[in-house]
Amino acid sequence: MICKWCHSKHASESMEKAYWELPDGSRAIKMTHVPSISCPDCEMVYIEDDIIDEIEDHLMLIDTKNLPDVFSYQQLLDQPKLLKKNYFKF
């Protein structure tokens, strides 16, 4: 895997924590075990765009009032959806 920041060939997949503001701006949450990329050469840890889009979309489709302050990425995906798709994404 190649690091998007330093172009090293030593980057690898990892599971990291991430902090997110809910779409309504009511609070921030901590998500654990988020699929990420970690580079030992430049020490950058980042989440790829497709995972970010998936998280953002899912947060728009669920009742975020039921979310605890800390939960895993999989727990987010397991939340029941209130809508079939994100109608706010253009």
From TrEMBL:
Pfam families: YokU (PF14122). It comes from the Bacteria. This is YokU family protein.
